[in-house]
Write a structure and sequence with these properties.
about 775 residues; 7-stranded mixed β-sheet; 3 domains; alpha/beta; about 30% helix; Aconitase, domain 3; globular
Length: about 775
């Protein structure tokens, strides 16, 4: 049972909830013997204390956060460091870890992946960072083992930067937000709401952390209950969970669209730090005697059953028993969702997976920051012990999240148990999560203990006529399915014993291989570039007016960053802004790139000639129509570019390239009814793109129409509540309004300057609070 409260609530002594209503004050006084007020109680959350400690603004309403540490992987760190270098970087001011867990295979594009790794190594040496070589650890496991501290804050350029279970408030953002930290700037947000995730009871036999996480995601994603808020895990049920179990829930909080997470800590967490030789980083974290939360998600752990997130989103959740009992109806629903995503571009059906009334799975994967933990793998081995996966279609791959975990399962015999079943053990690698490893066969169905199951994220290419499906499950139920040779099976069907395994962390593995500068920069080191590593192209400031061509129109309920810029093999090109931009929207709207480049060519001609002469007949006709009503428009004051419309873009990854690729192709804005995540909207802003909002149903333009924004620069400067816009279609002008939502003064400056790089080159960061 999971329920959400319609109002906020007070938590008394960390155990008892009192809803915020007319009787709350009297109830609190009766319990505590003293009066309290909401404003004071708000300060008693764990989240408030950590944010207050890291805030530099002097105001808890508008935060300017300085993080303790930074993390990036090999899809993102080259672009981040290149941006920071262009802005004057001399030294990493705080510990910055560069891991190599995404483009680890070096299987696409010749030398480009390993070239990125060598760039990362030399950057860590030159600027004073930490470099984790490929296959040593996935980014988040290394952070848990080596970086997390109780009461600390970590910013990472990966959306699953979540270490709340270890007492660290961590956030995943696009690269420009890390650039700001590298330049001693701040992370600026309003004080977020804090929602209590109140746990009670304990999990039943066979239920794992992914089951609990999926149940929570299924409950809160649809209505945005925790969107852009901090999830604070409290209540008596926390004590029933091991540290690994908590970590497994915590990493999936990203899929709720929350801002961050934090958990109360206890001896279980202290033992985790002690095991990893860092007990000094532990301290007890708990809410004050009376703490106020802006909402509550109440979770009875004892009622959670093995779960499955069916394609194509982590929130599309069911109990596995429910799927098996209602196969036809649920499969019909999945096929309906596929129709929304793919239209008529591809034939998609799961009916062939039903054999003799049972659902047959083709592949199982236990991997990455969510699935590759020590306890998950050991529990899977116990279920598989003495069984085998069979020699038909079903395959099982297991990826320990770090080499220390791999070493321990070798030593304790778990590795042997797994290998004897026919499963394969592989090194630490994030590839199965984003389509760079274990891509299934066409029309195959894969069950994975990983983080996401968006369309084509597993590596299939719809533009090539391919399709495959991923469902998210816990390692335990994946193992039960493997033991049943591919028949979808919940782990509660396993009536055997789960053994108690003790984890021993071998610190020498990292000591012998990871480069750690200890914060000492060596300016004599030369960065090692490969031919694919390119600088960002020049970007111009926002002009007085902007003429936008709508070059893609997406009406899906949610558009993911995977659809905006595909993952998988394309990630190998992420150190080459213009090369990567060629893949923008390639799986969602293959016409986008050509259309965007065509209108950008008009802009480049405008800049070169300082006139509108030589425009294509279409653009010339639009400009003529605009000039009839706005005679002051000229090539000197009006830029030309592209925009997309999407209902709710930006769910999923923190990758900045979902925005920067549009910018590189001449994009100047997004138009949306709502932005799915803060991080995507921040990426737009940091790349100088207008995050425009239009009311649902109020769409006076269509794809390939133009939108003229008269006086847009002044509107941004003046903090206008509404943005005047003019739709231009077939020579007809239709006025309408949009908004930009809340923008900080610095965000406005970044948009006006054209991007964060320009903002920093102009020296405007010098005015920031240091």
């Amino acid at each position: 049972m999971i329920k959400t409260y319609d109002s906020g609530a007070y938590l008394i002594n960390g155990t008892e909830l009192i809803p915020d209503n007319a009787d709350a004050a009297a109830a609190i006084a009766a319990k505590t013997g003293k009066e309290t007020d909401k404003a004071t109680a708000k300060k008693n959350t764990i989240a408030y204390g950590i944010l207050e400690k890291h805030n530099t603004s002097g105001s808890m309403d508008k935060l300017e956060i300085k993080f303790d540490k930074l993390t990036s992987h090999d899809i993102t760190y080259v672009g981040i460091i290149q941006t920071a270098r262009a802005s004057g970087l001399e030294k990493f001011p705080i510990p910055y870890v560069l891991t190599n867990c995404h483009n680890s295979l070096c299987a696409v594009g010749g030398t480009i992946n390993e070239d990125d790794h060598m760039y990362g190594l030399t950057a860590a040496q030159k600027y004073g960072g930490i470099y984790v070589p490929p296959h040593q650890a996935v980014i988040h496991q290394f952070a848990r083992e080596m970086l997390a501290t109780c009461g600390g804050m970590i910013l990472g350029s990966d959306s699953h930067t979540r270490y709340g279970a270890l007492g660290t408030m961590a956030m995943g953002e696009g690269g420009p937000e890390l650039v700001k930290q590298l330049l001693n700037q701040t992370y600026d947000i309003k004080m977020p709401g804090v929602v209590a995730i109140y746990l009670k009871g304990e999990p039943m036999h066979g239920v794992g952390p992914q089951d609990v996480a999926l149940a929570i995601i299924g409950k809160v994603f649809g209505d945005g209950y925790v969107k852009n808020k901090v999830m604070e895990f409290v209540g008596p049920g926390v004590a029933s969970l091991s540290a690994d179990f908590r970590i497994g829930i915590d990493v999936m909080t990203t899929e709720t669209t929350c801002l961050s997470s934090i958990w109360q800590t206890d001896d279980e967490v202290k033992n985790f730090y002690d095991t990893h030789g860092r007990v000094g980083e532990y301290k007890e974290l708990k809410p004050g005697d009376v703490a106020y939360y802006d909402g509550v998600v109440e979770v009875d752990l004892s009622t959670i059953k093995p779960m499955i997130a069916m394609p194509f989103h982590p929130s599309n959740t069911y109990e596995i028993d429910e799927v098996n009992a209602n196969l036809s109806d649920i499969i019909a629903d999945v096929e309906k969702r596929a129709k929304v995503s793919f239209g008529d571009k591809i034939e998609y059906s799961l009916k062939e997976k039903i054999k003799d009334g049972k659902f047959m799975v083709d592949q199982g994967v236990i991997a990455g920051c969510a699935g590759g933990g020590f306890e998950n793998i050991c529990a899977a081995a116990d279920i598989l012990d003495g069984r085998f996966t069979g020699n038909d279609r079903f395959t099982l791959s297991v990826y320990p999240a770090s080499t220390p975990i791999f070493m321990e399962i070798v030593k304790n015999g778990v590795a042997a148990k797994i290998l004897e079943t026919g499963a394969i053990l592989k090194t630490a690698f994030c590839g199965p999560c984003f389509g760079a490893g274990d891509t299934p066969a066409n029309n195959a169905f894969s069950i994975r203990h990983s983080t996401r199951n968006f369309p084509n994220r597993e590596g299939s290419k719809v533009q090539s006529g391919q399709i495959a499906s991923v469902a998210l499950m816990d390692a335990r139920s994946i193992a039960a399915t493997a033991a049943n040779q591919g028949v979808l099976t919940p782990a509660t069907a396993f009536d055997g014993k789960f053994n108690k395994y003790t984890y021993h962390f071998d610190k020498e593995i990292y000591a012998n291989r990871v480069f750690d500068s200890k914060g000492v920069a060596d300016d004599s080191v030369e960065l090692q570039f490969g031919p694919n590593i390119k600088d960002w192209p020049k970007m111009t400031e926002l002009t007085e007016n902007v003429l936008l061509k709508v070059v893609s129109e997406i009406h899906d309920p949610v558009t993911t960053t995977d659809e905006l810029i595909p993952s998988g093999e394309t990630s190998s090109y992420r150190s080459n802004p213009q090369g990567l931009a060629e893949f923008t929207l390639s799986r969602k709207d293959p016409e986008y790139v050509g259309r965007a480049k065509a209108i950008y060519a008009e802009e480049l001609k405008r800049r070169e000639d300082a006139s509108f002469d030589g425009m294509t007949p279409e653009t010339a006709a639009v400009i003529k129509a605009v000039l009839e009503k706005y005679p002051d428009v000229s090539a000197a004051n009006t830029g030309i570019g592209s925009t997309i419309f999407a209902v709710k873009p930006g769910d999923g990854s923190a990758r900045e390239q979902a925005a920067s690729c549009q910018k590189v192709l001449g994009g100047w804005a997004n138009i949306a009814n709502e932005y799915a995540t803060k991080r995507y909207r921040s990426n737009l802003i940091n790349w100088g793109m207008l995050p425009l909002l239009i009311k649902e149903g109020d769409l006076p333009f269509k794809n390939l129409d133009y939108v003229f924004l008269p006086g847009i620069r002044k509107a941004v400067e003046d903090k206008a509540d509404t943005i005047k816009a003019v739709a231009v279609s077939d020579g007809k002008l239709t006025e309408f309004t949009m908004t930009l939502g809340d923008l900080t003064d610095n965000e406005r400056e970044i948009i006006l300057d054209g991007c964060l790089i320009n903002y920093n080159r102009a020296g405007k960061n010098n005015s920031r609070r240091m």
